[in-house]
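PROTEIN DESIGN WORKSHEET
SECTION A - STRUCTURE
LENGTH: 132
TOKENS:
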């Protein structure tokens, strides 16, 4: 699992616990894909990619606006499952055995980044990244 993705997820969790409204992370294709999927699933309010200038250097950043329900963190149950030293894979058969409707699994598949529900519909498996 990419260290940039781990940094993104830990920033999301820490910022939501400390009630921040917006955070920014360095631009990365994988992080942008995960943020897009989180937005599509309704876990974040909005996001945008902007170029930030520091002196003569410019850097792309992703600005994320967090979402809260009843003043409680959406990311309180966030758990990073795969780490660089331990990667977990789930096939379609394993995904069909998971029946917890409240738990959302985020997987990296051959079709891109998908949730467990989309993987069940397409009957594919992949690398388990994190759960919410």
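SECTION B - SEQUENCE
RESIDUE ASSIGNMENT:
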């Amino acid at each position: 699992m990419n260290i940039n993705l781990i940094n993104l997820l830990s920033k999301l969790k820490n910022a939501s616990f400390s009630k921040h409204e917006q955070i920014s992370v360095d631009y990365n294709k994988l992080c942008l894909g995960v943020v897009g999927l989180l937005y599509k699933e309704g876990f974040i309010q909005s996001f945008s990619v902007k170029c930030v200038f520091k002196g003569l250097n410019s850097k792309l950043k992703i600005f994320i606006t967090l979402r809260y329900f009843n003043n409680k963190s959406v990311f309180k149950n966030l758990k990073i499952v795969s780490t660089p030293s331990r990667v977990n894979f789930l096939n379609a058969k394993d995904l069909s055995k998971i029946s917890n409707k409240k738990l959302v699994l985020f997987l990296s598949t051959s079709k891109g980044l998908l949730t467990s529900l989309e993987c069940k519909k397409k009957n594919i498996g992949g690398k388990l990244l994190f759960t919410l």
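SECTION C - NOTES
Residues 1-74 form a domain with the Ribosomal Protein S8; Chain: A, domain 1 fold (CATH 3.30.1370.30).
The first helix runs from residue 3 to 17.
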